[in-house]
Structure formats: C-alpha cells, structure tokens
C-alpha cells in the first residue's frame, strides 16, 4: 500500500491513474474501439470464458485434490500430495482472476485508484464469497449482487452508517446460513 502512494511515476500516487480505453485489438488482424456496447460484450465474453476455465479446473484431478485439501488436509498429505504446491497454485490462479477482474474494472472506469488495493475492497470480496456460498463458482456472483443491492438500499436510509446493518446481516448469515444464499436456496428447494 505504501509503494502505491510513494511510487508516483508508475502508480500515480494518491491520484491514481487515468487513461483512455485502449482499442480491443489483435495486432495485424482486427482493432475495434471500446464503446459501451463492445465493452459489455467483451466483459461478458471474458467472464464466461473465465467461468468455463474455472469449472474445468474444479472438475479436473487438480481441482479434486484441492477439494480433498479443503475437506481433510492431513489425509491428503498422508496420501502423498504436496499440499503446499497445490495451495500455491490455487493462490496464483486466484490472483490471476482477481487481477483480470481489476483490469476489466479499470478499463470500464478509465481509472485505477489506489483505494482498490485497500483492505476494505479485499474484505468485500470475502463477504461476497461468504454471502453467496463458499465452494461454488456462482456463489460469489450471487453474493456480490446481494451485497451491492443491499448496500445501495441501506445507504439511502443510513447514509454514513450503512455498513453497520450490512455487518449485522453478514454476522446473522454466517451464524444462521453458513452455506450462504445458494446453500439456503438448495435446502429450501429440496424440501
């Protein structure tokens, strides 16, 4: 965080970086300017492709080992899997897709602020996952939509203190719905 504020030649310091949208281009083949419409289609394509890649990863032998680590790390280690390597690769994949999301966000807004690397943003991502349902690919999307809608609605009534009811609701969901919204919906539909 300190580097972002002090290395102003690269990061823009506390002012961040502003830029125009680059064209969507494959050098020598095609170049399309980013309009609102092309940007939305591009983001939809990237999100869809990312989902398909992550789904493939979770259903691969690598993904099965990650699920095994989540369920019983000691047993997975006893079987002979190098747990640390799998965790490192999982963190790298997570960082790759988080970085991709950050790039898309910056392209959309034509701005990259230093606040994007502040712990509040990371905390919101954790909240998205917990609200939607940990261990699912669609859960964080559902959690993000729920959180953002809730935040917008509550900020109308509690302008400065809207995070207090959001936090209370988060605590209640962790206690009463530990599988998140998707887990609750599955249980409710299976009745």
Low-confidence stretches: none
Indicate the percent of residues in helices. Answer: over 70%
Main sheet makeup: 2 strands, antiparallel
Q: Give the N-terminus to C-terminus distance in angstroms.
A: 48 Å
Number of domains: 2
Write down the overall geometry: globular
Explain this structure to me?
The chain has ten helices and four strands. Strands 1-4 form a two-stranded antiparallel ribbon. The protein has a two-stranded antiparallel sheet with strand order 2-3. It is mostly helical. It is globular and about 50 Å long. Helices cover 71% and strands 5% of the residues. The longest helix has 27 residues. The protein folds into two domains: 97 residues, no CATH class; 74 residues. The termini are far apart. Helix 4 crosses helix 5, helix 4 crosses helix 6 and helix 7 packs parallel to helix 10.
SSE blueprint:
Blueprint: H1 2-6, H2 8-11, E1 17-18, E2 24-26, E3 30-32, H3 36-59, H4 61-71, H5 73-79, H6 83-109, E4 111-112, H7 119-132, H8 139-157, H9 163-176, H10 180-189
Antiparallel strand pairs: 1-4, 2-3
Helix pairs in contact: 3-4, 4-5, 4-6, 7-8, 7-10
């Amino acid at each position: 965080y300190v580097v972002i504020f002090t290395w102003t030649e690269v990061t823009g310091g506390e002012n961040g970086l502003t830029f125009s949208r680059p064209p969507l281009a494959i050098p020598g083949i095609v170049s399309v300017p980013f309009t609102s419409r092309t940007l939305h289609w591009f983001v939809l394509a990237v999100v869809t492709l990312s989902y398909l890649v992550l789904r493939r990863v979770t259903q691969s032998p690598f993904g099965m080992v990650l699920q095994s680590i989540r369920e019983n790390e000691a047993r997975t280690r006893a079987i002979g899997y190098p747990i640390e390597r799998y965790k490192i690769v999982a963190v790298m994949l997570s960082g790759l897709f988080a970085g991709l999301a950050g790039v898309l966000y910056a392209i959309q807004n034509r701005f990259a602020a230093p606040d994007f690397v502040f712990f509040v943003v990371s905390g919101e991502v954790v909240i998205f996952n917990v609200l939607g349902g940990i261990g699912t690919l669609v859960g964080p999307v559902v959690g993000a939509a729920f959180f953002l809608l809730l935040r917008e609605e509550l900020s109308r009534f509690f302008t400065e203190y809207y995070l207090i009811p959001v936090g209370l609701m988060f605590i209640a969901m962790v206690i009463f719905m530990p599988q998140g919204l998707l887990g609750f919906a599955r249980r409710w539909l299976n009745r």
